[in-house]
Amino acid sequence: MPQAIFVVHLDDYQGFVVEKRHPFSFSLNEKILNLIFYEHEKEEKENLRYSEIDNVRIVSFVDRARPRWMACFVLTADEDYEGLKEEIPGMGRLIIELMVENPELVHLDEILESHSSLGEASEEQRYAQIFLTPSSGLVLEKIENEGVERAAKLSIWLKSQVQSDSVDLRESILPLMDSGIVNVEIIGKGIEAVFLVKDVFAYRAPPVEAITKARKSMPGLAAQYQQRVAEFFAPPPPSRGYNPTIPSDDPNSPLVEDREKIARVLSKKIEYKVLTSLRDEPLSVREISNRTLLQEEIVQNALFSLESENVAAQIGEGIWALVTNPIMESFIPEFVLPLIADKLSNDEITPEIARRHLEILAEKWSGEQ
């Protein structure tokens, strides 16, 4: 177990600030902080580094989603770094996330003792980033309409949409690439093409599994739980409730407005971990804490946040459950097949681009259907 943890923030005016440390008596000089931090700056992704500086063994972690923050773990002289490479990134993610969102909930000694951590982004969390990144949603809508488009043409279109020459297509398209929604390849004589490979759908599902489990494990609360869910999805008239089957171009559709809310919920790392623990069944705060290895105070704070978004609610004394189950999932974009044929017949794309698009779709989906 590391002998010390400290959390560093690079401030524009104060320089390096050690925001939290455990034990409190532990200290480091500016030289060590500089050397560690600027080694990380050479990378452009989440990364873990091992350093030995002035006989101090330090494992440091940065999360590119939270720039200018660094979590550092000081190892004892005989501690095995290789044995900690899997565990430290998860603890680092949790510490940095809490420092940004709720610094008063950061108790380094408890995190170290319980090995609390956050995993890497899940597939649906990567989908969520599409709708939280400026212009990425626009690019997705365009490529859904086109199926395949030349990057140069897409860049011109995007600049006209946002009325700015400074917008960078690569930044806007990165979440689409990271989540596997699009592929970008060079085809033929230097033609950079953007292919739609998957499409994504965001909606709130009824928590069917949790309700089923509640009927068996807590029959006294099951009826109340089911009623609470019904109030959201199918309230009595004149309320419309929530129906994800209403077409998204209908002015009464909840999907367009709710999609960003779903994306925000899924993108919050701590809330997401608590949410996933409730997908199977209702639980108490202590039970969630035991399953997630998050401190009860952190769990309670996340539950209040989920409650404010109509995701979770208390259904009994100390029992929390999902009222809605926010989901982002992908599906095969079969609608691109006639788009490819039309573009090919109208000479908007080359036979090579059309062939490659079909190959990519087959490679992606042949084993998943």
Topology diagram in text:
Elements: E1 4-11, E2 15-22, H1 30-40, E3 47-53, E4 56-62, E5 69-75, H2 88-101, H3 108-114, H4 123-130, H5 136-146, E6 148-150, H6 151-162, H7 169-178, E7 182-187, E8 191-196, E9 199-205, H8 208-217, H9 219-233, H10 255-267, H11 269-278, E10 283-284, H12 285-292, H13 296-308, E11 312-316, E12 319-322, E13 325-331, H14 336-345, H15 351-365
Antiparallel strand pairs: 1-2, 1-5, 3-4, 4-5, 6-8, 7-8, 9-13, 10-12, 11-12
Question: Mind explaining what this structure looks like?
Answer:
- The chain is of the alpha+beta class and 369 residues long.
- It has three domains: 4-114, 2-Layer Sandwich (Beta-Lactamase); 123-194 and 337-357, Arc Repressor Mutant, subunit A, CATH 1.10.10; 201-329, Arc Repressor Mutant, subunit A.
- It has 15 helices and 13 strands.
- The strands form four sheets. It has a five-stranded antiparallel β-sheet with strand order 2-1-5-4-3, with helices on both faces. Strands 6-8-7 form a three-stranded antiparallel β-sheet, sandwiched between helices.
- Helix 4 packs antiparallel against helix 7 and helix 5 (136-146) packs across helix 7.
- The mean pLDDT is 90.
